[in-house]
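Sanity check

After download, print the first record. It should look like this:
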Amino acid sequence: KYGGVPVMRAKGPRTRAAILARQPATVTRSVRNTNRNLGTRLSGFIADHFGNTKGESNFIHLQLSGSAGQSLGTFLVQGVRITLTGEANDYVGKGMSGGEIVIRPPALRHFVAEDNSILGNTVMYGSTGGRLFASGRAGERFCVRNSGGTAVVEGVGDHGCEYMTNGTVVILGETGKNFGAGMSGGTAYIYDPQGQFPKLLNAGMVTHSPIEDPLEAEKLRTLIEEHRDLTGSGRAAALFILWAGVIDRANEYSCARCCDRPGIGWIPPDVRRRAEIRRVQQAAEAPVARYPPGH
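Expected C-alpha cells:
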C-alpha cells in the first residue's frame, strides 16, 4: 500500500489497463491527512509509458473526499484530473506540468467557503503547467516560482506569486503582504473587496493597472465561469452574474504586470457593488447549510 490508497500507485489492474489503453477511468476514494502525494505515482506511471502527454484529455479522474495529506497532485501530468471534496494540506500541485486539480468544500457546511482556508502553503510551487481551482483560501507562498500553471482561488497569504515567471493566477479575495516579490513574468488578477492590495504589493518588479483590453477581460471571465462550474463557488457565481457591471467599472479588476511588465489585475473596492455581489452570492449559496439562528 502507498498512503493507504493502493490504486493511486496505478497498481490497480483496472486503472492500469485503462491507462495503457488511454480509456477513461474514475477512481473514487475517501482520504485522510496521512495519505500523501496522491496522484504522483500515477503520473509517473503515465509519464513512463507515454512520455510527454501534453494535449491529452484528462482521462483518469480521481474523485476524493476528506482531508488530503501533503503534496496532493505533486508532479501531476496531463491526463489526470483530481477532484477533492474536503480540504488539502501544503504543496498541492508542486511541480505539476499538466492535469487539473479541483478542491471544493462539502455541499453541506456551516461556514462561508471564501472566508476559510481550503488548502495549505506553497501551492503550485514551481509548476510548469496544469490548472488548479479551489473554492476557498490558500496559505502563504502561493504559486511561488510558477512558470506556466493556471490557478484560481479565493484568497492567499503572504508572499503570493513570488519569483513567478509565467502562467495565470486569479485571486477572488484578499492577499497577504509582499505580493509579487521578484515576479518577472505571468499575470495575476486580484479582486480586492477591502481596497488593501496596493499597500500589500511589492512594486519592485511589478505594477498594477485596470483591465482595459476586452480580450483580456473575456479570458478572465471564462476562468471565473469555469471556477464557478467546477467548484460551485458562490463568489464566482456572484461575480459572473454581475460581470458586465463589474468589468465596466474598469477600476474594479486590475492586472499586475512586471516592469516590462508582469501584470496584476486589481479590483478596487466599491461599497455598493460589494454589497450587491454579497447579496447575489448568498442567493447562489442558498442550498448551503448555515449555523442555526442564534449560533
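If your output differs, re-run the checksum step. Summary of this record's structure: The longest strand covers residues 60-68.
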